[in-house]
Design goal:
It contains 13 helices and no strands. The chain is mainly α and about 290 residues long.
Length: about 290
């Protein structure tokens, strides 16, 4: 009988087969798609290349976004980082800059990799690419990080739909933060229980996050939220490396997210009918845009 895909079954499969958790994800993908290991690894490399290119474009953008609320965020943050010592630390601010830059690229209708969605596309690459630079890691480690991040997203996908319209931003930026934390831990060699603990810590901190974009556009608060979530993902990795763990197991946190998604009102699920979207400034921005 086929096992349900959970963090627990994932770990048990790895132990029974005496393979790494990343290898379990790879074998699962081979079985479900009928493709080859080589093709999957090639696709991972292609996605990594898209991430790197979207980051480069996002860091250099100067145009005004379609909603008129964003411009050169990536450039401004880079300039700040080049002349000031970050209060949050070099690693955290770089992950945030990268996540915001890719989020800005998405808001500008650029090409990105949805992880797990376009609105949260900066978080996983922001964490993985900045960590790889910091630790001088290569393609193989980045692929391992992506496999673990993808596996974590697959676990969530078994229980809930990952979209702001279905589950609020906890289903987008929240899940992406968990994926980034798991993938980041894998980059550093902690593929199994440590990665799952990092996922748990990052996700539960964003449980119940609403999706209330101004004008229904993926600009405010979405792009900056990518940066905040990337920093939280990194902190989750640090907490686990420091010996902390989640009291609530990751599979139970996924259940809680799915339950919370059902309890959130429709007005806080990407409809722009409540929250930040209905503030005086939010409404005024959209009035000006319509004019």
């Amino acid at each position: 009988m086929k096992r349900d895909w959970t963090f627990q079954s994932w770990l048990e499969t790895a132990r029974e087969k005496s393979v790494s958790p990343g290898e379990v994800v790879l074998q699962k993908e081979i079985e479900e798609t009928g493709t080859t290991r080589e093709n999957i690894l090639e696709e991972l490399s292609l996605r990594l290349e898209v991430m790197k290119k979207s980051l480069k474009r996002g860091l250099s953008r100067e145009d005004i976004s379609p909603g008129g609320m964003l411009k050169d965020e990536g450039q401004r943050l880079q300039e700040y980082f080049s002349r000031e010592t970050s209060l949050t630390g070099a690693g955290a601010i770089k992950a945030a800059i990268y996540a915001i830059a890719i989020g800005r690229e998405n808001a500008g209708m650029g090409r990105i990799v949805a992880l797990p969605t376009g609105g949260a596309a900066g978080i996983v690459p922001g964490v993985l690419l900045s960590l790889a630079e910091k630790k001088e890691l290569g393609e193989e480690e980045l692929q391992r990080g992506l496999l673990i991040a993808a596996g974590a997203g697959m676990v969530v996908g078994e229980k809930m739909e990952m979209s702001g319209a279905a589950g609020g931003c906890q289903a987008e930026c929240g899940v992406a933060a968990g994926m980034a934390a798991a993938g980041g831990m894998a980059l550093l060699g902690g593929e199994g229980e440590q990665a799952f603990e990092a996922f748990a810590l990052a996700c539960k901190n964003l449980l119940g996050l609403t999706c209330d974009p101004v004008g229904g556009l993926v600009e405010v608060p979405c792009v900056k939220r990518n940066g905040f979530a990337a920093v939280q993902a990194l902190l989750a990795v640090d907490l686990v490396r420091g010996g902390l763990h989640s009291v609530i197991p990751p599979d139970e946190i996924v259940d809680a997210m799915a339950e919370t998604a059902g309890l959130l009102p429709g007005s806080l699920k990407e409809t722009a009918r409540a929250g930040l979207a209905r503030t005086k400034t939010g409404l005024k921005l959209m009035e000006n845009r319509d004019d």
